[in-house]
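Appendix B, record 7
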Amino acid sequence: MYSEIGDEVSLVIKLLAKKIATEYEKIVVKEKELNEIKILALEVKGYRELNIAEALGIEVVTVKYYKRKIVEKLRLENIKEAVINAIKL
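Structure tokens (predicted):
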């Protein structure tokens, strides 16, 4: 009997761990997308990479990473095209 309860508790713990990991991943993805949007918005305002990094409290290399991701997601040649598209919208 105790063995069955232990097995059930173990299963519940595994399921909870998986659920927590899934929810955490969703939060991380949303945070990355928000950073991309913030960086693009600051690019539109004419901020340079150092200023963007300072404004968001991240490293310059992280700003460069997000800018590259923005360009890739939008299938553009460079961040300037992304800025132009953002201004048009």
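Remarks on this record: The mean pLDDT is 90. Residues 2-88 form a domain with the Arc Repressor Mutant, subunit A fold (CATH 1.10.10.10).
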